[in-house]
Specification:
single chain; little secondary structure; elongated
Length: 111
């Protein structure tokens, strides 16, 4: 550990942080596997993160920006997608209510 950063290389397995303020914190090379967050994450940036098998429940992602994201084999259930804008996306195999989106787009553009 360095003198100016007591958390550099720290082992904090099974730690519980309650009512902690971590404003402007930076997590780099941190393994948060099997962690739970009941937190305010406003204006947070996730960059180069591995988030496989992450579960989001009762989450407000209003005005979020997703760029260069791999959502392969992801499921969205009970989702409000009002005014969502999707562009430059690979939609192969994507279904909405069991209907292939590519089929819908083909019908729309051929009409």
């Amino acid at each position: 550990m360095t003198d100016n950063n007591p958390f550099d290389g720290a082992a904090l397995n099974n730690s519980v942080f309650e009512r902690a303020s971590m404003i402007n914190s930076k997590f780099s090379g941190v393994d948060l596997s099997n962690s739970f967050f009941y937190a305010v994450l406003t204006n947070v940036k996730f960059n180069d993160c591995k988030m496989n098998r992450v579960e989001y429940d009762d989450v407000d992602m209003s005005n979020a920006v997703f760029n260069n994201i791999n959502l392969q084999n992801t499921k969205f259930m009970n989702v409000n997608m009002e005014n969502v804008d999707i562009s430059n996306a690979n939609l192969d195999g994507m279904k909405i209510d069991g209907v292939l989106v590519t089929d819908l787009l083909d019908r729309y553009y051929s009409a």
